[in-house]
Design a protein that fits this description.
424 residues; mainly alpha; Growth Hormone, Chain: A; transmembrane helix; MFS_trans_sf; transmembrane; membrane; Atg22-like
Length: 424
């Protein structure tokens, strides 16, 4: 891959710039934890779709999530290419992030039973969240030397786990003891949690807005036609980026396993008869173990390389899948949650930094558009296969076979990526 001018990483990163960049992970993880994984699915079924049957409410929620993923798949590469050409990666991030935070605040004001408005705001906020992430990832290549990308990516994910976990813990306490916070009941506390998420997200994005530099434009302007031409050029010359293509195939498979674990863990635990409190405790364990684990895995990636670090994390995930097939007691569920925390942030952080080293830095937003696109497409295999195996083989425990296949196949393909040729 031929080096090209456009984005130069500083020889010595500014500590203020690095921490301002990493704090955005702390900011946006509140949405992922409190809204996506925590409160919105429950509020949507019990408050905004209370008049509908549970199956109908779940169908509506499924369509909302699917529409958000479809929109970001259509938007990501084009928006990334336009941002590269026009030199507005940071501005695009802040536009999408602050717009999504405002939509999250509005969501807290939607009255009960108005499921269509709630679903619409949720879809738009989720698109903003995912779009901002691709520009955030792309900013990594300009804030520090490439030798430090693994540790910085780990720092970002670590702060994300800690920030998201702390806010989620506070919101859970408010729901359990609303009177202590001057709230009328659990419903008001859950809605206040959405408002708190919006404020948290907007405020902690301010350091990035103030201190992280905007990468220079690659030229040509941020026109729609120019963005389409740049994507067309990339697709026509994919042979020159073969290591990137092979990596993305591997990433698509193993990140599907990671995503399936996140999406299906609660449903799996409920199917095995665990209580809701057990599932809340497990989620908090994952968040707080993920904080030091992601940072440690980033540092480990600098010592042994990102690929061995990712493969180590996938090995832990295979252990999780095997143990999960035989789980009996809540304490085992907690141990598995801790193992997920150990592996999840490291795999995500090292995947981001390894990919950043494979792509041309001056087109980082465009290439991270493809990266995020594959992350959204990943939901096409894992969750359906997870559910199908449990039904077909007559026991939900057999669903774990789907995870083992995804992690193994992704790891084997990752091993074949020509890293030296890509980085030359």
């Amino acid at each position: 891959m031929t080096p090209m001018a456009g984005v130069a990483s500083p020889a010595r990163p500014s500590r203020r710039v690095v921490w301002s960049w990493a704090l955005y992970d702390w900011a946006n993880s509140a949405f992922a934890t409190v809204v996506l994984a925590g409160f919105f699915p429950i509020l949507f079924q019990d408050y905004w779709s209370s008049a509908a049957a549970p199956a109908t409410a779940n169908l509506r929620l499924g369509w909302a999530n699917g529409l958000a993923s479809l929109l970001i798949v259509l938007l990501a590469p084009l928006a990334g290419a336009m941002a590269d050409r026009g030199g507005w990666r940071k501005r695009a991030l802040l536009f999408f992030a602050w717009s999504a935070a405002a939509l999250t605040a509005l969501l807290a004001l939607v009255p009960g039973g108005d499921w269509l408005v709630a679903a619409t705001l949720f879809v738009l906020a989720t698109v903003g969240f995912m779009a901002a992430n691709l520009f955030y990832d792309a900013l990594l290549v300009g804030i520090a030397p490439r030798r430090q990308w693994h540790s910085l990516s780990g720092l970002g994910f670590g702060l994300g786990y800690l920030g998201g976990g702390l806010l989620y813990l506070g919101c859970v306490i408010a729901v359990l003891q609303p009177a202590r916070f001057g709230l009328a009941g659990p419903l008001e506390a859950a809605l206040a949690g959405l408002m708190a998420t919006a404020v948290w997200w907007a405020v902690f994005a301010l350091p990035l807005a103030r201190y992280v530099p905007e990468p220079p434009a690659t030229g040509g302007g941020a026109s729609l036609g120019g963005g389409l031409r740049q994507i067309g050029s990339t697709l026509r010359h994919l042979r020159a980026y073969r290591p990137v293509v092979v990596f993305l195939l591997a990433y698509w498979l193993y990140i599907d396993g990671v995503g399936t674990t996140i999406r299906m863990a609660v449903a799996y635990g409920r199917a095995l008869g665990f209580e809701q409190n057990d599932l809340i405790v497990a989620l908090l364990i994952t968040q707080f173990v993920g904080f030091p684990a992601a940072i440690a895995m980033g540092a480990l990636g600098e010592r042994i390389g990102a690929r061995p670090g990712i493969l180590l994390g996938l090995g832990v995930y295979i252990l999780i899948a095997v143990w999960g097939a035989f789980i009996q007691a809540p304490w085992e569920f907690y141990c598995i949650a801790a193992l997920v925390g150990l592996a999840q942030g490291g795999v995500q952080a090292l995947s981001r930094s390894l990919y950043a080293r494979l792509i041309p830095p001056e087109r980082a937003a465009e290439f991270f558009g493809f990266y995020n696109l594959l992350g959204k497409f990943a939901a096409l295999i894992g969750p359906p296969a997870f559910g199908f195996l449990g039904v077909w083989l007559g026991d939900v425990r057999y669903s774990m076979l789907a995870l083992i296949v995804l992690f193994t196949a992704g790891g084997l393909i990752l091993w074949r990526v020509d890293l030296r040729g890509a980085e030359a």
